[in-house]
Amino acid sequence: MTAPTLPGLEPAPTPVAPRPGSRAVRMALPRSIDVLKDIAIEYGVCVRPLAMRRTDLDTGLTEVIDLPCGATREDKCPPCAKKNRRLRQAQIREGWHRDDEPLPGPEPATEAQKSLILFRAHLEFSRDEAVRAAQWDQVTDLDEAIREVEEAIAAEGLRGRVGPPHASDDEDQDDEPGQRRKRSTKRRQDAPELPRRKVERRTVGKTYTAPDGSTYQPSMWLTLTLDSYGPVRPDGTPVNPARYDYRRAAWDAVHFPRLLDRFWQNLRRCEGWNVQYAGCVEPQRRLAPHAHFAIRGTIPRDVLRTVAAATYHQVWWPSVDVQRYTLDRLPIWDEQAAAWVDPDTRESLTTWTEALDANDDDPDAEPVHVVRFGAQVDARGVMPGTEDAERTIRYVTKYITKHTGDCHKATTDRQRKHLDRLWQQLQMTPCTDRCANWLLYGVQPKKAHAKLKPGRCKGKVHQRDTLGIGGRRILISRDWSGKTLADHKHDARAWVRALLGVTTDGTQLVDYQGDTAERVRHAWELARPDDPDVGPMTHRLMRSISERARWRSELLAAKDRAAQGSSDLSATQHSAQHDGEETQ
């Protein structure tokens, strides 16, 4: 007699193969549309192109052309995001180890430009005399003449304005007239002093000479982090969530861009030359923002640490120590008073101007928040043309194709709760002087209106995906490579065309400044998805994949021909050198 098997210890049943043609077998087959998108991603084809209708202005021929969407996030379009990442890497690579200035100085002014400036000066003199004599009809005529001359100056090829425009009584003035609020520039007593040198007009670092006579010009890689808000575990979550300072973490994240700007300003004044940088802002595992930068030239590590310790940003806003209202009990909008009032007393809340005036009148007023860097400052030298330089560029651009909240996925309940607590604090933190969250603290924001919703501000810093990083994540100094992102795109296209031997023979015209420009012969407009000449998305993707596959084959063949040509040239030179040696 066989003993009965205890419950829960029955042997596992033998898996049975699904019936051919069953639903399980059909669901296991890959979907053709998914395979098409995977192939498009593999060949670098945009998976959500924009259908643009192009009309030839000469012949009237109209055709629909798919343009890339240009997304920078891989969750929207992986090919476009990858292309943008490669472009940023090329931009960092081109400007990092430069040994010359990227931007040349301005050209000398022509005689025609000088005469226009002189004529503008005469008009300014005549206007001043007319104002002194109260001849307002002449002032009006001179203002019109000044506008015409300034237009001619801009057409002549001069940058910027000669002088600010004259304000008139009929023009719109600022909503809040008065002088700009000024704060004391005296440094805080708890911040170390920094030396201040006159900044030279150079952007390249020092060149060093080795004992053997060779010269080299290294650069640097720098990481800046914020201060600690409490002990954290290896997964980034706080050891004691009740003692973790989420409020300070939220305020630091919102004002982190201002702190970075202050750091580069202090570093340039301390070093005495125009330090150039290129980097990215991303969250740490603890969800606090930090920044990686590639710096052209070398700076002593002690100087970097000293400048980071001495850098701070003070936020001179109204006090937020007491939250007077909650999401269940909010101020209400009074249509007659055109202001937000208390729901019980119907008294108007303090206006933004009144709150700032109270701070100005208080001699003991302190900033509502002070942002500082943490003690951790990582800096090391990087030599040009090494694998370390390429690896550092890849590290700097590691997360630029992801949302801030997707850089570190929350996989455990502890991490998800940590993210929720930080996000809840960010929802209550004011982001700007016009943020609706000021109503929670009894202050009407600047230019308040009835559509404000406290706790639901649409600013980027309040979103769950940004973690308080609402500004630009890619930070490139102005004189880094001397080119914009559009210039780098043009260089990439020119390299491909030169490799393939493709030339563009556009019709050249002469513009009003005497420069040559390509004549505009096409008109573009956005095509609607339901237009008759716009085909299905799958058909357009298949055509783009086929076209990109042919381009890739031609590009690889051109590279092989170029490599073969260089090898043949080197072999010919080696043979000629060998023949010369035999002749000697």
Automatic annotation (TrEMBL):
Signal peptide (residue range): none
InterPro entries assigned to the protein according to its UniProt record, in alphabetical order: RepSA
Basic and acidic residues bias (residue ranges): 187-203
Species assigned in the record: Micromonospora vulcania
Bias kind Polar residues: ranges: 564-575
The protein, known as: Replication initiator
One Pfam family linked to the record: RepSA
Chain segments carrying region Disordered: 1-21, 155-212, 562-584
